[in-house]
Design goal:
alpha/beta, Rossmann fold, 3 domains, 6-stranded parallel sheet, 18 helices, 14 strands
Length: about 425
């Protein structure tokens, strides 16, 4: 089977590599020539554990190809995926310009019957828009082709994307024709041998499922962060509350962890887009809009904790452990670390930071205003406080004795609640967590 994927960002590249791993012939297309050249050399353009090896293997075996030419990439494709970026607009809506341009190019160059699948996260109605753009281009060319447009949202977790794709908990496909259903079933059959998790539904429901899923998970996080902040006020422990809640089978234990807020390319954007879609239809999604407001406030909690412990931050040296929005990725989009760095620099504090993968991305934003440390202890040298922002594994069991020797101060701010208060305080540190 032959497929094409337009867009080699996070979703497009992971999807292309994983499809090729199952023996499918894949053409990945991108307008960024430098990115395509890197991919042709076997260099991944994102950090995702295991992706580089899988990319090189499938490229060498002749199943994975890269090009800047839409015409070349879709020439023999039975399915063409649109996996381009859909950035947020200032009003919370979604910029669909890359999606519409992809549809335009498909309409101009396709010369055979094909299924077009929108894998980009898009508002309800976008697949219909894509279909109309393609049909208009075909009409201008006088071409009579059978083009089905389906919605196939992705549910990949950064840091575990390969596992999520190769062994998905569900694959959602919105279709309105039996032909498209047969083609998509054949495409995903290799991923369904253990159990069939392929779910067909109407196109609008598939488009909305992606937003509703991410909004629900974001809502759980914001809810727990509000409970954690209340715990700080009343002297309760959010870890105990979480355990008490999570054992209720109606609630479950996942996504009940308090912290310094969620980030990344999905939750913030999708929550705002869902609220924006509702507003465009004359309705207000009050819970969804509150989820976003709570998360925005939560990212400032770290700086509040620092001020509680240190008072005036001017001239204080603050070490940050972790910059990416979550472990096992180099993605700093909407990351809490950026809010913290901005606030610290505005307060004229000295900032030293370390992250295993996200240093270069942050350096492009902050330049030399931040000290970029070579490791976690280098960041903590002469620091008045150490702040854990991203719970990378290497931060889980620090040497408290070494920190006592190299730090100037004795404050630990745990933005992910991974340390034991008793252990930290027995070493002579002041421990600040969220809801503990």
């Amino acid at each position: 089977m032959n497929i094409a994927i337009i867009g080699t960002g996070y979703v497009g590249l992971v999807s292309g590599v994983c499809f090729s791993e199952m023996g499918i012939d894949v053409w990945c297309i991108d307008v960024d020539r430098s990115k395509i050249e890197r991919l042709e050399r076997g260099e991944t353009t994102i950090y995702e554990p295991g992706l580089d090896e899988m990319l090189r293997r499938n490229a060498e075996d002749g199943r994975l190809h890269f090009t800047t030419s839409i015409a070349e990439g879709i020439a023999n494709a039975e399915v063409v995926f649109i996996a381009v970026g859909t950035p947020s607009q200032c009003n919370g809506g979604v910029d669909l310009s890359y999606v519409t341009e992809a549809a335009l190019q498909i309409g101009r160059h396709i010369d055979h019957d094909v299924v077009v699948a929108t894998k980009s996260t898009v508002p309800v109605g976008t697949s219909r828009l894509v279909a109309s753009i393609i049909e208009e281009q075909l009409s201008q060319r006088g071409a009579k082709l059978d083009i089905d447009v389906v919605a196939n949202p992705e549910f990949l977790k950064e840091g575990a994307a390969i596992k999520d794709f190769m062994s998905p908990d569900r694959v959602v496909v919105g279709v309105d024709s039996e032909r498209a259903k047969r083609v998509m079933a054949r495409l995903y059959k290799p991923f369904m041998f253990i159990s069939d998790r392929l779910m067909f539904m109407d196109v609008a429901s598939a488009e909305l499922t992606k937003y509703a899923s991410n909004a629900m998970l974001a809502a759980r996080i914001s809810f727990m962060n509000e409970i954690a902040n209340l715990c700080d006020k009343v002297g309760a422990n959010i870890d105990m509350v979480r355990k008490g809640m999570g054992t209720d089978e109606r609630i479950g234990s996942k996504f009940l962890y308090a912290g310094c807020g969620y980030g990344g390319s999905c939750f913030p954007k999708d929550v705002r887009a869902l609220a924006s879609t509702a507003r465009s239809l004359g309705m207000t999604m009050e819970i969804i809009e509150a989820v976003d407001r709570v998360n925005g406030r939560q990212k400032g909690v770290i700086v509040d904790k620092l001020r509680e412990a240190l008072g005036e931050l001017r001239g204080k040296r603050i070490a940050l452990w972790g910059l990416s929005f979550k472990p096992e990725t180099d993605d700093i989009r909407e990351a809490p670390s950026r809010v913290v760095i901005d606030a610290l620099l505005e307060s004229e504090a000295d900032v030293a930071a370390f992250d295993p993968e996200a240093m270069e991305a942050c350096r492009e934003i902050y330049g030399e205003r931040v000290v970029w440390a070579k490791d976690m202890y280098d960041a903590a040298m002469e620091a008045d406080a150490v702040v854990l922002i991203t719970e990378w594994k290497q931060f889980r069991v620090p040497s408290w004795r070494l920190l006592k020797r190299i730090m100037r101060g004795r404050t630990i701010v745990d933005g992910r609640n991974i340390y034991d208060r008793t252990e930290v305080e027995e070493q002579g540190f002041t421990y600040k967590a969220i809801g503990k």
